[in-house]
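hiii, so i know i said id send this last week but things got crazy w the move. better late than never?? heres the sequnce for the chain we talked about at the cafe, plus the structure i predicted for it. fair warning i was half asleep when i ran it
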Amino acid sequence: MSGLRRRNPIEDAGRSTREDIDISAGGLANHQQGRSSRSERRHAAPEGSRVINRVSEPGGPTVSVLGIRHHGPGSARAVAAALAELQPDAVLIEGPADAGPYLALAAAEAMQPPVALLAYAADNPAHSVFWPFAVFSPEWQALTWALEHGVDVRFCDLPASMVLAPSRTAPSSTASSSTASSGAGGDDTGTGDVLIDEDGADSASVRTDPLAMLALAAGYDDPERWWDDVIESRVAEPGQDSLFSAIGEAMAELRSITPLPSWAEQQREARREAYMRTQLRAVLAAGAERVVIVCGAWHVPALTGKLPSAAADARVLKGTPKRKIALTWVPWTHSRLSVASGYGAGVTSPGWYHHLFSHPDLTVTRWLTKVARVLREEDLPVSSAHVIEAVRLAEALATLRGRQLPGLDEVTEATRSVLVDGDELALGLVTSRLVVGEALGAVPEGTPTVPLEADLRAQARRLRLKFEALERTLDLDLRKDGDL
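okay and structure toks below
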């Protein structure tokens, strides 16, 4: 660790701005836009730009950019509320632009998240990349809202044909079969401060999950708890304008102080953001009047204010290699959401996040009731009194720690102390069944499939086997034809 020191990126940003950006509870919510006096900022949005409701000219179209946290239930709720308020006539979502013909399938009744968009090289199906979606993914909420309301919806990131193309400059950065990444701004929720060395070499986690970095800098180990405390519980009515504006301002600060990555990464990010702007111009040229862009928070400053010219973006994209690919939807699982893939995004507690999104009221009480049910199924003695005391302990711990609501840490400690009496094996059972909460998604019949999956489904139908998320041991009777 020689040469490294722990540094809070927001505190450092505040030293060079006219107004500090306070990301503590209440601070970000009350933040009024203030710009840095520095004349040169590598990534920040131009002076006077707005993150939401950016108007190209008086009386012209309105563009609202919603910076989100991939697979963040707080972001998902905020996006749903913003769409209902803004009523756009076009929605652009961070995702592979060539997936357009397959987006309508998301509205099918048989489409049940978690699911993923799969892109693979036509000449080498093992070379693939996934863009996963859960019900608590902001992108999924935006996509389904647009389809339900008959609004033009498109993915606006680099096409999968470019993502999977061999790199001419950095072969090691090409996509792999399981961990390929088409985007920064993911959801790996590590702990600890941002590490930046004295010469400015950055910790990659700032770019990977900038909202998690804001949470860490504010003293939160769970970004969703930070979001609830600072954003959802404190932003004043009306609506989402100040919320996303504040996030965009914070992202501009982070981008201005985060050292540049490798040249290959800079090129990839520049191409992605140039392509997003190209798609925005195309939507506006088609006559859209109210456009909403849903993208990782990191990209907000690149899509707001005075944008580069179309010619400049065309130069950035010129010469980008392409490859013949195929696209489809595939079922996904909660456990695989922990793997960083298409969005560079992964979450370690998808079951908890699903609960946060599905039960915004009485969240802790409902969660610990689920825990009690799981333990009772294993014949462990858990009464209603246990649940009541566990809720009280979780709330007391949150109060002692200065948090408005208990988070996963508090409910886990309450479970350990009250419901399982310190039994780590029983606690592990709760983690696997609830915190991860394994679930298997489904896609509609008729969805294009790869040959291997088609054969697997045919074999399962023949043997009358159901697709399940968890392993199950079957007792086979070799005297029966169906078991042979």
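btw The longest strand covers residues 124-133. thought thatd interest u
miss u guys!!
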